[in-house]
Amino acid sequence: MTESLSLVIPVFNERENIIPLVEAIQQALSGVDYEAVFIDDDSKDGTADTIRGLAGRFPVRVVVRRDKRGLASAVVDGIGFAGGNIVGVMDADLQHPPGVLPALYQAIQKGAEVAVASRYVKGGGCEGWGLVRRVISKGAVFIAHLFLPQTRNVHDPMSGFFMFRKTVVEGVALTPTGYKILLEILVKGRYRQLVEVPYQFRTRAKGESKLGVKTQLDYLRHVYSLMDRRRELGRFLKFCLVGGSGVLVNVGLLWVLTEYAGLFYLFSSAIAIETSVLSNYIFNDFLTFRDRHSRGQKDFFKRMLKFNAVSLVGVGLNLAILWLLTSFAGLHYIISNLFGIAAATFWNYLANVLWTWR
Ligand code: GDD
Ligand code: MN
């Protein structure tokens, strides 16, 4: 079967960007059998006419939607119109440099089923972004990694610039509530190999962004709709139960070793703490994160070390909060300790989900 590439490009009032974009794509993809399908939501600035005017010289066409609006649904519709067996998605405003297209295409040729242009791998970045924007963007990535395990091996799951074999989404219902269509593909699509290619997200030269605060909120709704809520909530509950069992082990052993084995209580405590950390680890490995591990013995011990490290930081956090709230906020030490336990539980859970049993 011969390979052909369809670029799906959502556009809304991007007239000034069309010609430089199409020229840059043509230059980048010389020698590749490709077409560019623009999905225009009835722009009033003449975007569609500009594209039609180029159709004689370049392999471009435009689909105008009059009944619908929205970036994600434009992309989903565009995938339906794409004739190629490989689909590329990119923006029209030149923030996604067409010069990256060959690298994405080559990654697919070499066997990846999904190739993501990524701002967050070595060599990638965001031109002219201030600290606030960076933090928000990284926060969004963190949320995706936390709640959607399928995105964890991708540094930039929010990218709007990517390529994939059409087989990845064949028979898959794509229904994004937000505008992050890649998330949808990462969670629902069928693929084994994914590659990230670094790129610099450019500043917008012409026209203006269409995405505002509402789209940020849509993002959270989207993650919520995609996550396996029962499973992840169940996981957290199991983790807390295991933690509770660890407290029993700890207190029980402290008592037995001190009262019956005659050890000095601080010495007993050290043994009791480490034993409870280990028993927590074993229960979590077999119960809480059963779906997340490979069988190798080496990995079992590697995770055990990680779990120990996480727990050590957790204990430090617990002590620090106990001390701060008691000495400086004047709380009763038992109350302070409850806050300490809550913070440590939270920390332990995050770190173990995202690191130990990644
Ligand atoms: N058809 C259609 N309908 N196209 C739209 C619509 C719409 O309602 N809204 C936006 N577009 C088109 C724009 O014309 C542009 O080509 C592309 O979608 C991206 O829109 P921008 O408004 O420029 O988005 P952005 O730059 O804020 O966000 C982009 O970068 C993010 C990374 O930070 C998008 O690519 C996001 O998907 C990406 O995550
Ligand atoms: Mn943009």
Write a structural description.
53% of the residues lie in helices and 11% in strands. With 358 residues, the chain is an alpha/beta fold. It contains eleven helices and nine strands. The strands form two sheets. It has a seven-stranded mixed sheet with strand order 3-2-1-4-7-5-8. Strands 6-9 form a two-stranded parallel sheet. The structure holds guanosine-5'-diphosphate-alpha-D-mannose and manganese (II) ion (MN). Manganese (II) ion binds at residues 91, 93, 95, 204, 209.
Strand and helix map with partners:
Layout: E1 5-11, H1 15-28, E2 34-40, H2 47-54, E3 60-64, H3 71-81, E4 86-89, H4 101-109, E5 114-118, E6 125-126, H5 131-147, E7 162-165, H6 181-188, E8 194-198, E9 200-201, H7 213-226, H8 229-259, H9 265-288, H10 297-327, H11 333-356
Manganese (II) ion binds next to loops.
